[in-house]
Amino acid sequence: MAMAAALGMATLASGEDTNEYELKDEVFIVANTIRPSANPTETYHYYTLPFCKPKERQWDDHDLGELLTGNRKIVTDYQVYFGIDVPYGKLCKVSMTPETVKAFSDAIEDDYVFEMYVDNIRLSAMVGQAVQKDAPPGKNVLEQHLNKFAAASTYDYYLNTHVHFDIAYNDADIALGYVDDTEVKSPVPKFVVPSLMHTIYPTVLVLISCRQLGVPVNLSDPSKKEASFTYSVKWRKEAAWTWEDRTVKDPLLPEVLEIHWLSIINSFVLVMLLVAFLSIVMFRILKQDVSSVQVRVISLSIWIYDRYMDPEDGLDINEETGWKLVHADVFRNPPYLVVFCAQNWVWNIVACGLVIPGPLLGVFAFLNTVAIWNDSSAALPFGTIMILICLFLLVNVPLTIIGGIAGRNTT
Prior knowledge:
With 411 residues, this protein is of the alpha+beta class.
């Protein structure tokens, strides 16, 4: 009863929201995509690789933004329940057929990363590691893999078959800020995927000895007929963790570009100074030009007046000359006014509505076809395409028509 009271109504941390769990509530492990670590935009479905597929495929909820960015979340068969530790759990066994070995080996060679979600917290880990043959104990496998001078045949490919989830939680009242009227932010669930053998990744959090979490499968070993995928779960109450701990940086996730405000301000000030200097120079040049034109025109007018003109003609030598004579030209219609203007306002509205969506539709059709051909998760499903078409027809088309009619009736 004491344990139930301690674990009851606790909270798992998520990206921006918090979900409340009671003891033994199921916590879903959601698989998302796999991708090369060097190319975050090249994403594929998680089960493109022959991982343990769920008995019943259950897709997780997606919003439109997730679908457009290539997320394809699917609930896995990991049995994780709130507050229940799992020292060693079996997921499934996969036969090491030549096709399976080749698929995993190619993924490991290209440094593939898989992504999962635990209560909307994204986690990632390497599919496996390439270990140089006859490498001395303790040598960093990452350094070995970065050695571009080594031949590919000198590597053994090891498949990660065990995943360890180390999840921290907090009481719901504390997480929601109801303790002594003091706002206390909810902590984040931590998660780890063990590095293998002598591999050392300084930026990957490893809380339990890797040797206790199972031995990776050597894909180069022909005697290995099957691989057992396993997992373990550890729950810890961490009341002292802050909100910032929820968004701990995962080095395997895509980099988020930071805005360098100082550089932006510096560039803005530089542009303003250049505009000011150019304006001063242009005004001085124009002023000198206008003055010189006026002097020449007045001198010529006086000479013509004295030589040819009769004083009774009423020639005014002080009338405006030079630049002053052309200041009103901006209000005159050009000689070929309708060359680039549409005379039929209906077709003008139609052209305005298609001039940008038309080329975009062609580019999208090509890219989506390529994504479908390569079985990439970046390919939009049919339902998402229908949603985009409905948005175009119900939002863009009416606004274009209304704007065209309003512009035509405006004088």
